[in-house]
Structure formats: structure tokens, C-alpha cells
Amino acid sequence: MNLSQTPIAIAVATTQTTCPYCGVGCGVSASMKQDGSIGIKGDELHPANQGRLCVKGSALGETVDLDGRLLYPKMRGADGNMRRVAWDEALDTVASTFSAIVAEHGPDAVALYVSGQLLTEDYYIANKLMKGYIGSANIDTNSRLCMSSAVAGHKRAFGEDLVPLAYEDLELADMVVLVGSNAAWCHPILFQRIARIKETKPHAKLVVIDPRRTATCELADLHLPVKAGTDVWLFNGLMSYLAHRGARDNAFIEAHTNGLNEALAVADADCADPATVARICKVDLADLLAFYEAFAGTEKVVTGFSMGVNQSSAGTDKVNSIINCHLITGRIGKPGMGPFSITGQPNAMGGREVGGLANMLAAHMDLDNAVHRDIVQGFWASPRIADQPGYKAVDLFRAIEDGRVKAVWVMATNPMVSLPDADLVRRALEKCELVVSSDIIEKTDTNAFAHVLLPALGWGEKDGTVTNSERRISRQRSFLLAPGEARPDWEIICDVARRMGFDGFHFDGPHAIFDEHARLSAHRNGEPEAAVGGAAKSRRVFSLAGLAGIGKPQYDALQPIQWPVQRLSDGSVVGTARVLEDLRFTHADGRARFVATVPRNPANQTSDEFPLVLNTGRVRDQWHTMTRTGKSATLANHIPESFIDIHPQDALLYGVREGGLARISSRWGAMVARVQHGGGIPRGSVFVPIHWNDQSASDARVGALVNPVVDPVSGEPEFKHTPVAIEEFRVAWHGFILTRHELALDDITHWTRVQGRDFTRFELAGRSNITDHAAWARKLLGVDDPEADWLEYEDLTDGTYRAVHVVDDRIDMCIFMSARPDLPSRSWLAGLFAKQQLEDADRVGLLVGQPIEKGADAGPTVCSCFGVGRNTICDAIRSKGLKEVGEVTACLKAGGNCGSCVPEIKKLLVEIKTVDAAEVA
Ligand SMILES: Nc1nc2c(c(=O)[nH]1)N[C@H]1C(S)=C(S)[C@@H](COP(=O)(O)OP(=O)(O)OC[C@H]3O[C@@H](n4cnc5c(=O)[nH]c(N)nc54)[C@H](O)[C@@H]3O)O[C@H]1N2
Ligand SMILES: Nc1nc2c(c(=O)[nH]1)N[C@H]1C(S)=C(S)[C@@H](COP(=O)(O)OP(=O)(O)OC[C@H]3O[C@@H](n4cnc5c(=O)[nH]c(N)nc54)[C@H](O)[C@@H]3O)O[C@H]1N2
Ligand code: SF4
Ligand SMILES: [Mo]
């Protein structure tokens, strides 16, 4: 961190806030330490995490520095370069261009593309501006890419987007099923709550349904490696099994549901025979039956689902096929059971509450319901109200590309990286008359195409609320001063709205917006049917009635609370752990719906040309497009580079080698990354992480390959299933650099930038044959002084070259090259960068290309909290005969803090046991 760019704390006292990453929504206690660094701890009083944080949350202090921050408004000049401008100029440009385009082409010619990482207050204002004042529903959000299938599934089944249960139901359950969720890496604190159930209830079962054997499977009792895209067959099969094996709850079905016969007929048609289902889903029949039997025989079951379910061209049906199984058994609205959509982003839920999707209205009301439109417009007293759905994310960028939408304002999302067919996004943004981006970071793949950049306050600086997966609203509170000229997102939107001539955008703080949001949720909620005409319902479960009228002091003191929120007659404000306990669903007749889900395959199938299925997702220590987590050296250590995980037999078949580079391509685009095995991938598919982009690597943006196919109901893209081809990416040499300085890498074929603690690391590979290594390396590293302390070794026979630049006995930079990707350990070299002075043994090691002392190479990091490497753990397991994760923790601390690496340690214990047993045999 550059000291001149250190953030400034508002107060030394500890601030209670909420983690800005995943939907678990952990409470964080943040404080400024004596040395100026930021202290981050889990908030022991927060019900979501009770003091725990995963490794991303723990590393928050490393990500709030001002390096790379967008601190001033900027506009693109005629020469194509960005220049700093005054806020007035930027805001006037946005407002006047939006107004002019609306005047000439109508309200549907402009759009907002927002994010589940906005606070509820920001989101509320953006939605109000677009739907109530500009008068178009062209506001969509990256939650379209994430939760929209769950939203659509909930609405079809319950009549409203409701997550029935609370986290404590996981602890009350006797069986947890995780479908398409790698919770061990993506929702670590929630996963730890699940893992701990087994300590108190040894009979409790964890079943994981995922084509890959992920870290989540390490703690599972049963893993069903379902063929990608076949979940509906699996759950239709389960429904049929439950129906005909005496597991149905007829009283519940009679009293509270509709549509069983149609849904069951569809399930029975293709899926009544478990052997057929097992064949289609490519799972072992005995395992499938074990799952069906356990589900049938266990009353308290929670079925958690995430992106392996939602991100599919059959995503909404997958969701409903799961819910059907809970409805037929009546397992909903009671402790320890229910379908559980695990949300991705910190405010995925808040965005849904304010109606941030292009087909919704605010406060859980529907765009296509005239009564709802009347309620919202009346409450806002707004000049108009959108009455047609706007473009959903993928269609929105198509509409930009073909000129139907002429101005777009992107907030808190990076579509150049995260949308499918991401090169279409590039073409769209290149053509668009006005691209505005509100972000906290200046250089992103999307910002490269913006005409106006608006600096937003980031986590730690901004103030507002977020809602987690269990409907719990928590405050994000500021503890850092606003840097530069950055401003809160809500304020920026209000400013533009006022400049467009709209009333209704005067707020003296986020509390006032939250109050309006709370009042709208209660407005005409549940008024008698007669008042709204016949069957049109106005009742919504979503209500913040108990918080209506909230003032600044109460808002500032607001403790985490689950909606619906009521105020009791004694004046106390209470939340609700579980909804649907009264079994009154939001459909007009008060009943839940079974939805007939006809199974179908993913939209695009493999072919001779594209024989493998590309599956994409997350790694443990990075967050999305890495604009924040990419700054942390702690987080970079776990997985420093993008990779293509492939089965060893497929690697042989397609001629790619572990550790080498490969290029994968689809009909839409291509990328290059390093080949690896060991990610538990089945044959016929590859897995690539979503995080790397044009800022962090030369050509690792996987979004460019993903097919832009969407679910017909939700519009959510099929991110988990694109046919691709793989081939070796031939290079003449591999290498890496560790340096304390910046580098220009324009001429290098392939590179990845990795944040180190006292240095930057570049992984490199090149096509050009380098004849004079020394001259080339000196030029690249900028060391032209012939007197420089420059150690060097070259072996022309195998293309090995290494050079080290030492300044005042400290290592300043080093470069290692080889014809093959068999380069020395980076963790050992990182250790040398931490030393104030190199020892003689270090210098010898540098020349030989490996550490001289035993134990000096910890290997790749497994435990990020304590920086414990793989080699260290394996050595201890072997030398001390360790058998349990607890013993490893006692010995090395690894796994003892956040616990995110426990599944990996467990895997190492098993691997070593297997290898040693094989050697003995
Ligand atoms: N470390 C980390 N955590 C995160 C995030 C992050 O960027 N990094 N992002 C957050 C966000 S926004 C989200 S949405 C969540 C996502 O959280 P998850 O959904 O848990 O994560 P993913 O890795 O996207 O995908 C989950 C799994 O779906 C599996 N899958 C693929 N196809 C199928 C299929 O057809 N059927 C089934 N059953 N499974 C399939 C994949 O193999 C993968 O293991 O994570 C949140 N948490
Ligand atoms: N291939 C593939 N693609 C995927 C997925 C997948 O599984 N596979 N998953 C999809 C899913 S589930 C999601 S959620 C998306 C996520 O994808 P994105 O939303 O595109 O990813 P982020 O990196 O989170 O982008 C957030 C941006 O907001 C900025 N930012 C951070 N804080 C603030 C703030 O307070 N205000 C403002 N204005 N800006 C801020 C960050 O710097 C960053 O540029 O990716 C989707 N794309
Ligand atoms: S599990 Fe980790 S990333 Fe998610 S909210 Fe908690 S600390 Fe943050
Ligand atoms: Mo997400």
C-alpha cells in the first residue's frame, strides 16, 4: 500500500458494519489500529456469523486503500483520453444527454444497468428514477445473471419472491441438500454452520449435487455428480418417488396447493423409473436411490440451491422442480425445512425488495398488475409509471448494439467481464452514444468504454442497508472519510434526477430513503380485496411496516432484522425468522402452485467441433472481477492465475498438458489459461473461473466464450454450459518476474498480474525466440546500469535463464525463464522479498534456482489466514503422523481461524493416506 494513499478513519472507535461480499451477510467490526492499518474482526453479535469471517472478509483491510481508486469525475475528451472534470459538468452531461435522448426517441431509448452490490437505498432511487420518472422499465441488474431464476421460481410457486426459512433452520435440519452450490468456497460461513451440525447431530446428512467434486463435497455424506443440466430429471424423479412411496402430505396438498396432478403427470412421464433417471443424470443408481430414500425418510430437510441451478436455460424449472418436492411433502414454513435459495451478492435480496429487475415494480409489486402500478405511482406521486417490462440484461446489451438503446448508465457492475458473449458487450458499448459508469475503481474492462466516469464511495465509506439470504437487513456503516471527490451512489442518482427536472429526489441521508422504502412496502398492503377489485391482490408478505417513520438515530442504531418487520402494540419492532408459517401463499387464492417442469437439455450441445462443456464459477479467495480482492496479497496466494480444469484423460485426448497453457474457444470467443487437474471435474467438461479479465491477464476473460442463451422465463444466462474446443497454446518459453516496480508487458504473448506483499508478480509466456536473454531481460526490467548487482545464470541447452537484481543487499526484481513450465517455487521467492537482507545461502539458492535450506519452500498457500503452504502441511502430516484436521490445526494453526481451508486440508490428509498406503502395498 502506498502510504500517501492510505484511507483516513473517521473515528478510532470500532464500527459495526456488514461484509460487502457474499449473501451470507456477515457482521464485521472494523477499527483503525495504532499503526494506521485497519482492524477487521467478525462481529460476535451478528446473528449471521456470530464472530466468524471467511478469508475474504478477514482480508477486507487489505482492499480499502486508495490505489487504483476513481477519485474524481472524468470525461472522455475529443482525443479519446479521460480528463478530470468538475462534478457539475459530469452530472449536467449525464442529465442533459439522457433528457435529450428521451425527448427525441422516447423513454425506452435509455437504460440503467445496476447491481446487487448497490445498497438498498441506492437501488431504490435508481428504480424510482427509471420506472416512475423517466417512465421506462429499462433498469436491469447483474442479479439477472444470478438470482432471477430463483425469483421467477418463487413467484410461480408462492406468488411472491419469498425465501421461507432462516439460517437457524440449517441447524435444525436433519438433512441438508446442496444443489449446484459450492458453499465451502462461495458461502464459507454458512457452510461452516452446516458442517458444525454434524458435531452435535452425528446422524445428520449432507448431500451435494454438482457435476464437479468440489471442496463442498469433502464434507458431504453423499455426492451425486449429476450430468450438467439434468437436475430437473433428478428432482422430477424424486417427486415421483415421494408421491408413490407414501411420502406425500395429502392434508397439506389439499388445503394449501394447486396443480399437483399436472406436475406429477409430467414427473411420472419421464422420471418414474429411478434407473432411467440415473442413466440420464449419469449417477450411480444405488447413490440415487440412497438420496431418494433419505429424502423420503427425513422430515427436516433443507434444499439449498445456487448457481448450478439458477444459471441454466432451464433454471426456473430447476427451481420449481426442487420446490415441488418440498410442497408434495408439506416441508415448508416449519422449523428445519424448506427450499433455500442461497443468494450471491451482499444485496441480491435488497435489490429484489426495491424491484431492481426490468420486470418488477418496487416493494414486491408487479409491473403487469394495474393495481400495483396504481399503488406505486400514487405513493410516489410520480408523473408516470412504466407498464411494460424493460430489457433484461442480455437483451439490453443487444438493444444497445443495434441502437434501440442509445445511452446506458452502469453502476457497480462490470459487464465487459460478467455478461455472456462479452465481446458483444464491447461492440455495444463502442456504439453507444453515452456510456456512464459509476464505480470505485478507475481502470476496469467496462470503464475502458465509458464516456463519463462517476466516482462512488466504496465499502467502509458508504452508509446504508443490505439484505442477506435469510431476509436479514443489516447496516453497512462508514468508518472511513470520503476520499477525493467520491460520493454515495444514491446522491449521484438524485443529483442527475433533479437536473432532469424531477421532484421526489430530495433526501437528507440514506435514512430518509430507507424510510420512504419502508413506508411504500406498507402502503395499501393487504387492503381488502373489494377495495382493489376482485381477485387482484394487494397483499405482499414483504413489509417493513415496523420501520416506517424511522428517523436518523434509529436508523444509525438499527440492529440486524429479518423482514417482514412489524411494530407491536407496545411499540417494539420485531422481525420474522420464517415466513409462510401461516401457509398463506401470496397467490390470489392463498395457495402454493406445483409447476409442471418438463425436463429439457441445455440449449447448446457439444459437437465434433466443440466437444467439451465449459462450466464456469468461482474460486475461494477471489470476488468476481477482482477489482477489490485482486489487491490483496493474502488472497492472491491461494490461486494466483486463471486455469482450465480438465480430466487427465481428456487432457491426453486433446493434447494439452498439466502446467502448460491451453486455448479454449467457443462459437463466441476464446481465451488462454493454464491447464490443471485435481478440481474434481468429470470427463467431457472443463471448468474455468470467472474472475480474471483484461486488467489482470492478457487473455483470460471467460465471459467472451459463454453462450448468450437464457432461460425463457427468467432471462438468466446459461453460464454453466457452453460447448467449447481445447488445444495446446504453444509458446517458446515460460517465465515469471517478481518486481518491486511497474512493468510494461506489451510485447509478451501471455501474462497474468499477481499481487504480492512487497512486489508484483507477473507470470509470462512468449512465442518469440529470445536469443540474447541477458539483453532482453535487462531491457524489460529496465536495468541498464552495467555496475548493477545483477546475478545471472543461463543454460543454452534447455533454455533456462534466471537473473536477479539486488539493491542494497535486498532483492529488487528477479526473472526466471525456461522452455518448459517447470519453474522454481514462487512462494520461496516471495519469502526472499520479505527479507531486509539476502543471506549467502539465498544468493546461492537464487543461482541454483531452488532453496538451499529445507523447509524454505512452503508451497502454494492452503490456509490464507496464517499463510500455511501445502508443502508445510504435507510435511507435518507425514513427519508427525497427523490424521485429523484438528491435529493439523493444533500443529500449524492452519484451518484454525476462518476455517475456509478445512475441506482442502481434509483432502490432503486423504491423499497422503492413499499414496502412503499404495507405497506400503
Ligand atoms: N469466493 C467467492 N464467493 C462468492 C462469489 C465470488 O465471486 N467468490 N460470488 C458470490 C456470488 S454473486 C454468487 S452468485 C455465489 C455463487 O455461488 P455458487 O453457486 O456456489 O458458485 P459457482 O461456482 O458459481 O457454481 C456452483 C456450482 O454449480 C455447479 N454446476 C454447474 N452446472 C451444474 C448443473 O447443471 N447442476 C448442478 N447441480 N450443479 C452445476 C458447478 O460445478 C459449481 O461447483 O457466490 C457468492 N460467493
Ligand atoms: N461465466 C460466468 N459469468 C458470470 C457468472 C458465472 O458464474 N459465470 N456469474 C454471474 C453472477 S452470479 C454475478 S453476481 C456477476 C458479477 O459480476 P459483476 O457485477 O460484473 O462483478 P464485480 O466485479 O462484482 O463488479 C462490481 C463493480 O462495481 C464496483 N464497485 C464496488 N463497490 C462499489 C460501490 O459501492 N459503488 C459503485 N458504483 N461501484 C462499486 C467494482 O469496482 C466493480 O467494478 O457475474 C456473472 N457472470
Ligand atoms: S462468508 Fe465471507 S464473504 Fe460471505 S459475508 Fe461472510 S465474511 Fe463476507
Ligand atoms: Mo451472483
UniProtKB/TrEMBL annotation:
SUPFAM superfamilies: ADC-like, Formate dehydrogenase/DMSO reductase, domains 1-3. It holds the Pfam family Molybdopterin. Gene3D superfamilies: 2.40.40.20, 3.40.50.740, ADC-like domains, BFD-like [2Fe-2S]-binding domain, Dimethylsulfoxide Reductase, domain 2. Keywords: 4Fe-4S, Iron, Iron-sulfur, Metal-binding, Molybdenum, Nitrate assimilation, Oxidoreductase. PROSITE patterns: 4FE4S_MOW_BIS_MGD, MOLYBDOPTERIN_PROK_1. It comes from the Bacteria. Its cofactor is [4Fe-4S] cluster; Mo-bis(molybdopterin guanine dinucleotide). InterPro entries: Asp_de-COase-like_dom_sf, BFD-like_2Fe2S-bd_dom, BFD-like_2Fe2S-bd_dom_sf, CT_Nitrate-R-NapA-like, MoPterin_dinucl-bd_dom, Mopterin_OxRdtase, Mopterin_OxRdtase_4Fe-4S_dom, MopterinOxRdtase_cofactor_BS. Residues 12-68 form the 4Fe-4S Mo/W bis-MGD-type domain. Belongs to the prokaryotic molybdopterin-containing oxidoreductase family. NasA/NapA/NarB subfamily. This is Molybdopterin-dependent oxidoreductase. It comes from Herbaspirillum chlorophenolicum. The lineage of its organism: Bacteria, Pseudomonadati, Pseudomonadota, Betaproteobacteria, Burkholderiales.
